[in-house]
Design a protein that fits this description.
- By secondary structure, the protein is mainly alpha-helical.
- It is built from 18 helices and 6 strands.
- The longest helix has 47 residues, at 291-337.
């Protein structure tokens, strides 16, 4: 009989030490267990069939996953039915409900905040808001075509149309983000259906690719080897104080990191979408046999070229598409990285959900422009704490989050938009200097 296992026929009991060893990397690498509401589940085989992807659920192997489970799923009762075959036991009576290393009072206070959010109806969407978002995207898309149709293909209308289409891509990116997070409809499948249309037909990207990467980011933000958004370390950038010093001590130099705050302007905002995402999304869809996503993607490119080819020709249409991707890329990178790169980046330390999100995210001041420009991701803290919350409600929960931070002495960072942009560059400069010092002297 295993350590804390009870007699046959009764629920098996486990300690946190036993669970922590089943993380896919310890003495039993083939086993992955996690805990939800004191119940212990064996996800070793299920992780490959997990609808959200194998990696996002595996990132919590050996850990308590109660808070992310609540945060990510809409119909929890339905999901629990599918989890029943995975149930192998529960925590022993003398074991706390989550790892002893976590802040008990903070975990309890956040769960109370979550209950308050649900009672206040802040997880309920205003469908008119999202209809208006979609309509303004479609109107901009039509306006871009009308400009070329009416004024011709000379330089000024060409550039003006490109700016409008770049705006369409950025705003459609924020809208697909809403559907991807299940923030618009009460049924997951309805969100998935519209998500494929918005990201596939309006943007030309696969929903499966976004899901695969983005949920990992939310599960373990800024955790190296778990958050794909920091995978640019160490091949292109040295990120975070701890990781940069570690890289220097190991005498690793893939790039001149002490100049990364300069070459960021070359290989960062201008290049990410047109030079990387543009081809990788097709590779992803074909390699993973996501044929429905591929069909949606192709519908975007067919529509785009049929729309502009008669006015611009092949070279002009290709040039327009490249310019639109360039505008979109700059918009996307500055907005998405302003909340994360300047924050704490390290290996996963398995801290509580609230602390995990607060140390990896910061906010930007609220204004009508900032809300629109960033798709309400200026409320990145609230978004990360409550990923299924409709974005029009972030401002309502923000005071409650601030209050909880103040109670527990946790910094709640909120800054002006341009300061947030500048902090990306400053943090890259600082981590590059830390790497150089360690590389030369340690």
């Amino acid at each position: 009989m295993e350590g804390s296992e009870l007699v046959q026929g009764e629920m098996r009991r486990f300690t946190w030490e036993e669970i922590g060893q089943r993380n896919g990397r310890g003495p039993a690498p083939q086993e992955r267990w996690l805990v939800i509401d004191r119940k212990v589940y064996d996800i070793s085989r299920f992780c490959r069939r997990h609808p959200g992807g194998s990696r996002v659920i595996s990132h919590y192997a050996g850990q308590d996953a109660t808070d992310p489970f609540i945060a990510f799923h809409l119909d929890k009762a339905l999901v629990r039915k599918y989890m029943n075959p995975l149930l192998i036991g529960e925590l022993a009576p003398d074991q706390p409900s989550f790892e002893p290393s976590k802040n008990k009072k903070l975990v309890e206070d956040f769960r109370e905040l979550r209950a308050t959010v649900e009672r206040m109806g802040l997880l309920q969407p205003n469908h008119a808001f999202f209809i208006l978002c979609l309509c303004h995207i479609l109107m901009l898309d039509v306006a871009a075509w009308l400009i070329i149709w009416y004024f011709g293909a000379s330089l000024v209308p060409f550039l003006f149309s490109a700016v409008l289409l770049g705006t369409v891509q950025a705003q459609a990116g924020w809208l697909q983000h809403d559907f991807g997070h299940l923030s618009v409809f009460s049924k997951s499948r309805w969100n998935h259906w519209v998500h494929k249309f918005v990201i596939g037909h309006l943007k030309g990207a696969p929903a499966s690719w976004w899901n695969h990467l983005h949920f990992q980011h939310h599960a373990k933000p800024n955790c190296f080897r778990k958050d794909p958004d920091v995978n640019m370390h160490p091949l292109f950038f040295a990120l975070g104080k701890t990781l940069s010093v570690e890289l220097g001590v190991q005498k690793k130099k893939f790039m001149p990191y002490n100049h990364q705050h300069k070459y960021f302007f070359i290989i960062g905002p201008p290049a990410l979408v047109p030079l990387y995402f543009q081809w990788y999304i097709f590779y992803f869809a074909v390699q993973r046999k996501q044929w429905v996503d591929l069909a949606w993607m192709l519908s975007f490119y067919i529509r785009f070229f049929l729309t502009y080819l008669p006015f611009l020709g092949v070279k002009g249409t290709l040039g327009l598409h490249l310019l639109v991707r360039f505008i979109e890329s700059n918009w996307f990178v500055w907005v998405t990285q302003m909340n994360h790169i300047p924050m704490h980046i390290d290996y996963d330390k398995n801290v509580d959900w609230f602390s995990t999100q607060l140390q990896a995210t910061c906010n930007v001041h609220q204004s009508l422009f900032n809300d629109w420009f960033s798709g309400h991701l200026n409320f990145q803290i609230e978004h990360h704490l409550f990923p299924t919350m409709p974005r029009h409600n972030y401002w309502k929960v923000a005071p409650l989050v601030k209050s909880l931070c103040a109670k527990h002495g946790i910094e709640y960072q909120c800054k002006p938009l341009l300061t947030a942009f500048a902090d990306i560059v400053h943090s890259l400069k600082d981590s590059g200097e830390l790497w150089l010092d360690a590389y030369l002297h340690k």
